[in-house]
Amino acid sequence: MNTKAYSAHSASSLLAPSQIERRDPGDHDVQIEILFCGVCHSDVHTVRNEWLGTIYPCVPGHEIIGRVVKVGAKVVKFEEGDIAGVGCLVDSCRACASCREGLEQFCEAGAIFTYNSPDKHSGGVTFGGYSESIVVDEAFVLKIPDGLDHAGAAPLLCAGITTYSPLMHNKVGKGQKVGVVGLGGLGHMGVKLAKALGAHVVVFTTSSNKVEDALRLGADEVVHSKDGAAMKKHLNSCHFILDTVAGKHDINAYLVLLRREGTLTQVGVPSEPLAVDVSNLIFGRRNFSGSLIGGLKETQEMLDFCGRHDITADIELIPIQKVNDAYDRLVKSDVKYRFVIDMASLRQASALA
Ligand code: NAP
Ligand code: ZN
Ligand code: ZN
């Protein structure tokens, strides 16, 4: 199938209209007409080759919500007309220990990500959600709970699961003080989810114009991270800190805010290494760890949790023609709090520029 998409042709080129091929659905596949796709900072890192390894042309997008328009003969979970989601994963080996434990993101044969991964069907690379439609094996397609706003639910597929998974893994809950560093797409979901789990939430931001929003989103306290005196008040006090920062920053300023045996989990992926002063780990027996999205089972659990608690992202809906501006704004931390592309704008675009 010929499908309209937006793609980048090099690390320095803008995203532009293009045509891609999608396969016809096989027996286990679901064909989804994409309604909304969130814009994750990982899309920017990849398009601009900041992590190296990008294969061009690159069609990003892994926060996909759409309508099922066709199902293969052996599909059991979905039928035509269902609203469905696709996140960061579209396949894995399904046989290794990680896959068997529902941790497909750590597939030992190499997880197949929604974009920029080898695509066994086409022989090329996978193409993501900045497109009209996508075809995915039903094992990697999520059910979207009734009642959630579709555009606001799209960011749950990456920003939601990437923050939910470490909160669950670290057993965050009532009676705990949790720090969230960086109030962007991931950070604002982290605040909503940690609050729904019952934690006392402190946001650390570099943007003074996000303070009121942080409180509205559910934070109990907000700290301007450049204010040394304000930071000092939180020394040795946090059970858990989630660091979502996309750029270079001083990780030690946050490690010292952990109480004894507390954990800081890094989910932001700056393109440069972060320098850790190990004495901040040694004194207090503190932990510094990382976390990568979440497996399919946990992603469905997170969606169901959001359905029960009526949690979606705070979004700015944009036509796809504005996606390059959105990237520039993301890099400047000018996001409140997730850009989501209304894919009707791609479908309606009459001619390819
Ligand atoms: P985002 O919307 O751009 O948010 C990042 C926020 O971090 C910014 O809004 C800003 O918040 C803060 N920030 C950015 N650069 C900073 C700097 N140099 N120093 C201090 N603060 C800075 O990005 P996102 O989509 O949430 O993604 C965040 C990071 O997580 C990206 O690196 C992305 O690739 C990564 N990611 C990882 C996973 C995973 O599985 N581990 C999954 C998805 C995304 P304030 O204005 O509040 O300071
Ligand atoms: Zn993402
Ligand atoms: Zn595997």
Compute the gyration radius: what is it? 20 Å
With helices defined by DSSP (H or I, 4 residues minimum), what is the helix count?
12
Largest sheet: 7 strands, mixed
Q: How would the global form be characterised? A: globular
> How are helices and strands ordered from N to C?
EEEHEEEHEEEHHEHEHEHEHEHEHEHEH
Whole-number tally of structural domains? 2
Q: What does the model show?
A:
The chain is of the alpha/beta class and 353 residues long. It has helices at residues 41-47, 97-100, 150-153, 159-169, 185-196, 211-217, 228-232, 252-255, 279-282, 296-309, 323-331, 344-348, and strands at residues 2-7, 16-21, 29-39, 64-71, 83-86, 89-91, 112-113, 133-137, 142-143, 177-181, 200-205, 221-224, 238-243, 258-266, 287-290, 315-319, 338-342. The strands form four sheets. Strands 3, 4, 5, 8, 9, 16 and 17 form a seven-stranded mixed β-sheet that branches. A six-stranded parallel β-sheet has the order 12-11-10-13-14-15, covered by helices on one side. Strands 1-2 form a two-stranded antiparallel sheet. β1 and β2 (16-21) form a beta hairpin. α4 crosses α5 and α4 (159-169) packs across α10 (296-309). 47% of the residues are buried. The mean pLDDT is 97. Residues 92-93, 95-96, 98-99, 107-109 line the site of one zinc ion.
